[in-house]
Amino acid sequence: MYSPSDFRKGLRIIVDGQPYYVISYQHFKMGRGKANIRTKLKHIKTGAVIEKVFGSNDSFPAPDMEERKMQYLYENAGEYTFMDTKTFDQVSIPVENLGDAKWYLLENEEYKVLFLDNEAISVDLPTSVVLEVIESEPAARGDTVSNITKPAKLQTGLEVKVPPFIKEGDKVKVDTRTGEYIERAN
């Protein structure tokens, strides 16, 4: 059981008998009243977003979800196909369910695929991934200020802001939660 004090972005909970995950939450207290938590929740199956306010004493069960390690194979017409490496079963997840996770998927890599009621619904990503820069402008001479960045296109199509010393062919580590450049990878 979870309480509102356990809320964090991505936490999966059951609200009114339906599975949701927390998009955002904000703690607030009005005058002498008790503390409340204002949340935005996204339905795991339908993708519908709702806003709810919970008291600090509310509790929520976790949805009965299963995680399976699966290999990402390919994308075809908005469907991302994964294969179980033990049974060779294949499942497809629509791009709407993946959201921004599609920018971090590399073919033939293994990911945790989340199942609810025996249906593949989304992918649980690591906190960071290493991607190759395929397109980047050359650094302008004289850009020595420490906070200068330039756009770079990565192998999955994701565009991130990188420091001027990053060039095409370099590998960079990107945070999957924020989509921001972390560091140059070896």
Sequence-ordered SSE layout with sheet pairings:
Elements: E1 12-15, E2 18-29, E3 35-43, E4 49-55, E5 65-76, E6 79-84, E7 90-94, H1 95-98, E8 110-116, E9 119-124, E10 128-136, E11 150-154, E12 159-162, E13 171-175, E14 181-185
Q: How many domains?
A: 3
Low-confidence regions: none
What is the CATH C level class of the largest domain, in words? Mainly Beta
Tell me how many strands there are. Answer: 14
Count of helix runs: 1
Mean pLDDT: 88
Sheet with the most strands? Answer: 5 strands, antiparallel
C-alpha termini separation: 42 Å
The name of the CATH superfamily of the largest domain reads Nucleic acid-binding proteins
Shape: flat
Listing every helix as H and every strand as E from the N terminus to the C terminus, the arrangement reads: EEEEEEEHEEEEEEE
Share of residues in helices? under 10%
Question: Under the CATH scheme, which architecture of the largest domain would be assigned?
Answer: Beta Barrel
The assigned structural class equals: mainly beta
The share of residues in extended strands comes to over 45%
- Placed side by side, the strands forming the largest sheet appear as 7-6-5-8-9
State Rg. Answer: 20 Å
Report on the architecture of this protein.
This protein has a five-stranded antiparallel β-sheet. A five-stranded antiparallel β-sheet has the order 12-11-10-13-14, with no helix packed on it. The chain is an all-beta fold and 186 residues long. The protein is flat and about 60 Å long. It has three domains: 52 residues, SH3 type barrels (Roll), CATH 2.30.30.30; 60 residues, OB fold (Dihydrolipoamide Acetyltransferase, E2P), CATH 2.40.50; 58 residues, Nucleic acid-binding proteins (OB fold (Dihydrolipoamide Acetyltransferase, E2P), Beta Barrel). 2% of the residues lie in helices and 52% in strands. The protein contains one helix and 14 strands, in the order βββββββαβββββββ. It starts with 11 loop residues before the first strand and ends with a strand. The mean pLDDT is 88.
